[in-house]
Amino acid sequence: MNKPIMAKATAVWLVDNTTLSFKQIGDFCGLHELEVQGIADGDVATGVKGFDPVTNNQLTQDEIDAAEKDPTQKLKLKFNPAAVGEEKRRGPRYTPLSKRQDRPASILWLVKFHPELSDGQISKLVGTTKPTIQAIRERTHWNIQGIQPIDPVALGLCKQSELDAAVQKAAKKLAAEGSIMSDDERRKLVSTEQSLEMDSEPKIPAAISGLETFTLSDDPREDEGPELDADSLFNLPEASADEDDEQP
Questions:
Q1: Between the CA of residue 242 and those of 46, 235, 236, 247, 248, what are the distances in Å?
Q2: In which residue ranges is the amino acid composition biased (Acidic residues) (predicted)?
């Protein structure tokens, strides 16, 4: 059930100006019956000025009269056409003052390790503005040299589930656009739990690229040329008798 605006002040007015039961007033204003009794006794909401729900288009006098005659009848909040379609204000996530100085470090971490995230996603995760994100992306932030990337989850700026959800959303968007991703980029787009369970793939260093097709034969008979052994290399031909006589 929706509560009226300024619920406690409305309860004060109903206590002072109607004969409604404490339960009826409590149910309508979202208060406990004993709290309404405390208002009547002057122990609760001392100094609070009553807020007229009839004048402020929250109740009709006929509704109040009917409820006064029947203690079991509940008050119904008046329909307000002006409130139809009203949405909650959307904006950056609120960040406590003690953690606002950590936001640049978390932004740099997200930009570095999850470049697929949009500025809007980063803004929602850590509660910052797009100009700040853009300045860190372009390394034009006034303190860019003094910022060290730190995981926003470790800083308490967002939950791991929220970060994983944003990364998964970015992955689906890239897949829909048909973008080609490397193995490292694909690994970044999965959740932390999935990434830890993945097997690391062996990679060939760039310095020896092209040798992946090189193989050594196990069968020496396939090599061309005569087969050599160590003894044949050290057994030199014997010198003839004439050559021995010529030596001094």
A1: 136, 21, 17, 9, 12
A2: 220-230
State yes or no: pLDDT of 198 exceeds 60.
no
Mean pLDDT (the chain) is: 75
Nearest 5°: CA angle at 26, between 22 and 29?
140
Residue 79 near residue 29, CB atoms below 8 Å: no
Alpha helices in the chain (DSSP H): 7-17, 22-29, 33-41, 61-69, 103-113, 119-126, 130-137, 152-155, 160-177, 183-188, 192-197, 230-234, 241-246
CB distance 29 to 4 below 8 Å: yes
Q: Nearest to residue 168, comparing CAs of 186, 184, 156?
A: 186
Give the global pTM. 0.40
Which amino acid makes up residue 179?
Answer: S
**Backbone phi, psi, residue 30, to 5°:** 75, 30
| 12-28 pLDDT per residue, tens | 999 999 999 999 998 98
The predicted pLDDT at position 140 comes to 92
The domain limits of the chain are 7-83, 87-196
What's at 156, amino acid-wise? Answer: G
The tens digit of pLDDT for each residue in 102-143 reads 889 999 999 999 888 999 899 889 888 899 999 999 999 998
Calculated CA dihedral for residues 128, 132, 134, 137, nearest 10 degrees: -100
- Asked whether the beta carbons of 133 and 106 are under 8 A apart, the reply is no
